[in-house]
């Protein structure tokens, strides 16, 4: 009767473990124990469950080097606790203050990174499947409120997850449905000692300030605030998972990866619900890789609105980190600025046929062969913009295959005079990013004969009197 609360918590955690698939029989689990009430009760609970479900536990404690003798006292307490429960113990030490100065990060973040770094090392050493953390329902309420204040989206409002993959190890939170009052009651009823961290009383830290000042203040308007915030996290988590699945489907159907970047056609994108549009752009940015936080909503929205606006246009947007989003008529592309600038200029001279020229940056080749003239079959070969036929006797060899140059102009068939290549690209709606990848073919007199895949010139047209033709194919 005396340990009623602890027994109830054990059964609740056991049920949560099964529902959320937090462990499997035979798993080795590192339990992070600070010495406070939360993690101390967690270790007791997991020890009872481990005996029934064949789990193997390792107790891990990190001395952050921040609280002098108090930190040493906590380390000794956790060591003795592990020995008393017959659980292997691992102690680590971190100089968090030095790391804070080196990295320029805040104290809370610096301590967290060093703590997780240590826990992952322990998990790797023991070949553990997971790391059990002592976060509980009140921690979840604080997390949701903190993210709400920062302007988080649905993913942030989902709070901490019961299970999350990190560096090939699962981070599990078995206590996430249990409130602090129940944990303290279990300690009191069962005579479980624990340590008190004096730094938890300092409002210098954001989370402490939320717990000690903000939540009690808001509690005047809702005495079930922590419960409400946990309910919000539960609902947001399920809906976030659903939207994540739908976004993955949309990505597979719409997005095409190319040269480290990504591209998609605007028409199918515009048909998506606005929520999926935003999440799809965010997913692309995360894949680039381009670290995207919730605060990047403005950037995501700029890409989305620029994509769905009715008027066909071209634009580019600096995403930071050396990446750029650009609209090219009916396509949105995410490209590396460095990669785009590395397309080389080139010039190839072609004197003998058949010939084949590989075009840098285009992933295509230009093949030129001789054909006998005077037959309908030969003259009909140029059936698309990817093929062209010229009267060989009207050309001055050698031919040149080169990248386009400023001021390039071509005499267009059916048009009096010449037209700038740049204007031809615009008329044909050739995306700006592809223009530098398309070669031009000239003869020895410098006349542009053909822009492969785009337009042929009026020069050297074949006729029934043609005795020999050059057949060009853009593969």
CATH architecture of the largest domain: 3-Layer(aba) Sandwich
What is the straight-line distance between the termini?
82 Å
Number of helices: 17
**How many E-type strands?**
22
Helix content: 40-55%
Beta-strand residue fraction: 15-25%
Q: By CATH's scheme, which homologous superfamily of the largest domain applies?
A: HUPs
Look up the CATH topology of the largest domain: Rossmann fold
In what order do the strands lie side by side in the largest sheet?
Answer: 3-2-1-4-6-5
Computed over alpha carbons, the radius of gyration is 33 Å
Low-confidence stretches: none
How many individual domains? 3
Structure description:
- The protein has 3 domains: 3-235, HUPs (Rossmann fold); 259-340, Uridine Diphospho-n-acetylenolpyruvylglucosamine Reductase, domain 3, CATH 3.30.465.60; 347-474, Phenylalanyl-tRNA Synthetase, Chain B, domain 3 (3-Layer(bba) Sandwich).
- The longest helix is centred in the middle third of the chain and has 30 residues, at 225-254.
- The chain is built from 17 helices and 22 strands.
- It is elongated.
- It is of the alpha+beta class and 475 residues long.
- The mean pLDDT is 88.
- A 6-stranded mixed beta sheet has the order 3-2-1-4-6-5, with helices on both faces. The chain has a 5-stranded antiparallel beta sheet with strand order 7-8-11-10-9.
- Helix content is 42%, strand content 22%.
- Pfam families: ATP_bind_3, TilS_C.
- This is tRNA(Ile)-lysidine synthase.
- ATP binds at residues 34-39.
- It comes from Paenibacillus macerans (Bacillus macerans).
């Amino acid at each position: 009767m005396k340990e009623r609360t602890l027994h109830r918590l054990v059964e609740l955690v056991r049920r949560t473990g099964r529902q959320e698939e937090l462990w499997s029989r035979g798993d080795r689990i590192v339990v992070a124990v600070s010495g406070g009430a939360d993690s101390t009760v967690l270790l007791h609970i997991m020890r009872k469950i481990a005996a029934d479900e064949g789990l193997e536990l390792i107790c891990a404690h990190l001395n952050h080097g921040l609280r002098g003798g108090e930190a040493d006292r906590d380390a000794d307490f956790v060591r003795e606790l592990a020995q008393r429960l017959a659980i292997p113990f691992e102690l680590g030490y971190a100089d968090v203050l030095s790391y804070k100065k080196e990295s320029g990060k805040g104290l809370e973040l610096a301590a967290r990174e060093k703590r997780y770094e240590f826990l992952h090392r322990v998990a790797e050493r023991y070949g553990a499947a997971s790391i059990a953390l002592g976060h509980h329902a009140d921690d979840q309420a604080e997390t949701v409120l903190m993210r709400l204040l920062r302007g988080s989206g649905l993913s942030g409002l989902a709070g901490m997850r019961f299970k999350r993959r990190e560096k090939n190890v699962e981070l599990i939170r078995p206590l996430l449905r249990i409130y602090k009052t129940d944990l303290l009651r279990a300690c009191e009823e069962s005579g479980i000692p624990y340590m008190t961290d004096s730094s938890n009383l300092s409002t210098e830290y954001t989370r402490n300030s939320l717990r000690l000042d903000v939540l009690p203040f808001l509690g005047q308007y809702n005495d079930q605030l922590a419960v409400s915030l946990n309910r919000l996290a539960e609902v947001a988590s399920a809906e976030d998972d659903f939207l994540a699945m739908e976004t993955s489907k949309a990505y597979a159907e719409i997005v095409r990866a190319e040269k480290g970047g990504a591209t998609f056609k605007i028409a199918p994108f515009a048909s998506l619900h606005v929520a999926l549009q935003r999440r799809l752009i965010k997913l692309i940015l995360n894949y680039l890789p381009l670290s995207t936080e919730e605060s990047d909503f403005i950037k995501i929205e700029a890409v989305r609105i620029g994509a769905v606006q009715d008027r066909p246009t071209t634009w580019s947007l600096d995403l930071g980190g050396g990446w750029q989003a650009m609209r090219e008529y009916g396509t949105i592309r995410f490209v590396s600025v460095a990669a785009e600038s590395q397309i080389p200029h080139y010039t190839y001279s072609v004197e003998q046929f058949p010939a084949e020229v590989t075009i840098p940056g285009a992933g295509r080749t230009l093949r030129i062969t001789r054909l006998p003239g005077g037959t309908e079959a030969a003259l009909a070969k140029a059936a698309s913009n990817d093929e062209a036929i010229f009267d060989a006797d009207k050309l001055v060899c050698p031919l040149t295959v080169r990248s386009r140059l400023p001021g390039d102009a071509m005499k267009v068939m059916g048009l009096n005079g010449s037209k700038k290549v740049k204007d031809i690209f615009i008329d044909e709606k050739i995306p700006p990013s592809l223009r530098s990848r398309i070669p031009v073919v000239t003869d020895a007199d410098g006349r542009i004969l053909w822009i492969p895949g785009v337009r042929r010139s009026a020069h050297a047209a074949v006729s029934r009197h043609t005795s020999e033709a050059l057949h060009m194919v853009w593969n």
